[in-house]
Amino acid sequence: MAGRIPKPFIDEIILRTDIVDVIDTRVPLKKAGKDYKACCPFHEEKTPSFTVSPDKQFYHCFGCGAHGTAIGFLMEYERMSFQEAVEDLARRAGLTVPYEGGAAPAAEQGTDLLDVSREAARYYRAQLRDHPQAVRAVEYLKERGVTGEIAKEFELGFAPDGWDNLLRALGKDEAAREMLARAGLAVKKEGGGYYDRFRNRIMFPIHDYRGRIVGFGGRVLGKEEPKYLNSPETPLFHKGRELYGLFRARDAIKREGRALVVEGYMDVVALTQYGVDNAVATLGTATTRDHLERLFRYTPEVVFCFDGDRAGREAAWRALETALPALHDGRQASFLFLPEGEDPDTLVRKEGREAFLARLATATALPDFLFGTLVKQVDLGRMDGRARLVELARPLLSKLPHGVLHQMMLERLGELSQVNSEKLATLVVIPDAAAPARQEPRSTAGPKEPPSVARLAIAMLLQQPELAAKVPDEGVFADLDLPGMALFRAILQLLKTIPNLNTAAIIEHFRDTEHQAHLEKLAVWRHPALEHDVGAEFAGVIEQFRRVSAKVRTEQLLQKQRFDGLTSDEKAELAHLLSKKRRLDDFSSKT
């Protein structure tokens, strides 16, 4: 199929990739015997149960059951698509991803869209420098106190007024114009043709967490609406996942130990200019769970910054509700409310860096904001008022993950409502919503029913692919019809064709098939036959296959002999099978 990544290239990527290096740059690992360990990045834990096997090139958490290859890790941890994960690993290996048919499918042309976005950013920067209309844009930036250095750092640009400036510059043919539309930079008209999406606007390139330009925001210079316009949703840009300024702020966020979430591009630009460089902005949308999970990978604390007016407090409350499920133990959220009519941009310019940081130090902790807001809605002097407080708090506290913070919030509610916290635990905790993040291990126990011989053979091949060389003639049981044999034969044939595949590469061959989840479980299955002399156990399994196959073939020939008669070759085959069976039976009786 055109546009798909060839299987041999995925094999090469897996074989060239060290999963330990991929994960260690994101989750620091420690050597533990032949494997590596860390606290799981997918659920909160104090004792490391997340294991990375360099032999299998596979990770597995014995706490929550998360597991996968290097590709799978990038998809889960970084929220990449399959193609993005392969592209990322290919860049690490110094390779270019080939696509069958010469190009990625239309829905997966991420590289082309990235190229278009990068060229558009270069065009907008040139217009801010050279276009006659840009005088107004430069004057506006100067009025807002933006220096040339900071404008360069954030790669600010200018989209001139007019319907087709960008199209004339970059849309040389229909394919290029279509790509501009797919990147959200042009709009396709119903009657045919295109026009520029951004016109007469100061342009703010939006980088993803890896520094790639995936979208744009534009601030209009006239009185047109909307004042701020973002790129639409595209294969590259999803406003519910991206945060403006995160790529350049992430080192500062790690250094400061907290991230400051503000509402606008200019807030981030101004704060950075004044030395507060750990700020990011949402992109015309409320803070999402994806935003928070991304930030919590860099820091244990997130501070939301809002206006102190009614709208600001309502926005803060929505952020609180979103943050609650993400507050595993060790994570914190706070709220900084600014004087009415001020935003971070105006306030930092008016008061300076030190005064702004002093305000930041007084941010209200999420528990205080939560209970302070609820208490204002009830009369704690009345019994029914305290009961009302419990009812208001109940759905909110039920969103919190199980842990120390959850318990402490219950105790605080108990103090305010004058109800014993143990009693509250039975009233407040909704099991489905507030259950511990830890799940029952899904992979290590293996199948609950007694394992079939084929399943055991698959696990052996998967965990030690070199065993395939011990099967000189797989045709002996090619027609053996046992549960799991078709998959066993497929893996065996794969390893005969490509002998150097490791566990991860085998699993990637079965990605997006009905077998993927089953193979991922078997890759970490702990069974006595997989713990010691696996070679001898595997030889025994193959011999068992041979015996069953011989038995089945003998019964087939005997059945045919009774009804249709046998050819001379079939008679010789049956005689050989019966003779072999007698020898085995004699041997078994003597031993």
UniProtKB/TrEMBL annotation:
Q: Mind telling me which Gene3D superfamilies this protein's record contains?
A: 3.40.1360.10, DNA primase, catalytic core, N-terminal domain, DNAb Helicase, Chain A, DnaG, RNA polymerase domain, helical bundle, Zinc finger, CHC2-type domain
Q: Does the keyword Nucleotidyltransferase apply?
A: yes
EC top class, as a word: transferase
What keywords were assigned to this record?
DNA replication, DNA-binding, DNA-directed RNA polymerase, Magnesium, Metal-binding, Nucleotidyltransferase, Primosome, Transcription, Transferase, Zinc, Zinc-finger
Q: Please write the reaction equations for the catalytic activity of this protein.
A: ssDNA + n NTP = ssDNA/pppN(pN)n-1 hybrid + (n-1) diphosphate
Q: What is its EC number?
A: 2.7.7.101
Please report which protein family the annotation says this sequence is part of: Belongs to the DnaG primase family.
**Where are zinc fingers of the kind CHC2-type found along the chain?**
40-64
Q: Which InterPro entries match?
A: DNA_helicase_N/primase_C, DNA_primase_core_N_sf, DNA_primase_DnaB-bd, DNA_primase_DnaG, DNA_primase_DnaG_DnaB-bd_dom, DNA_primase_Znf_CHC2, DnaG_bac, DNAG_N
Question: What function does the entry list?
Answer: RNA polymerase that catalyzes the synthesis of short RNA molecules used as primers for DNA polymerase during DNA replication.
Origin superkingdom = Bacteria
Quaternary structure note? Monomer. Interacts with DnaB.
| Domain Toprim residues, every copy | 257-339
Question: Needs which cofactor?
Answer: Zn(2+)
Name the Gene Ontology biological process terms: DNA replication, synthesis of primer
Q: Which CDD domains match?
A: TOPRIM_DnaG_primases
| Membrane-crossing segments per the record | none
Q: Establish whether keyword Cell membrane is in the entry.
A: no
Kindly list the GO CC terms recorded for this protein: cytoplasm; DNA-directed RNA polymerase complex; primosome complex
The cofactor remark states: Binds 1 zinc ion per monomer.
One Gene Ontology term of the molecular function aspect: DNA-directed RNA polymerase activity
Question: How are the domains described in the entry?
Answer: Contains an N-terminal zinc-binding domain, a central core domain that contains the primase activity, and a C-terminal DnaB-binding domain.
Name the encoding gene, please.
dnaG
For this protein, the record's NCBIfam families field holds: dnaG (TIGR01391)
Name listed for the protein in its UniProt record:
DNA primase
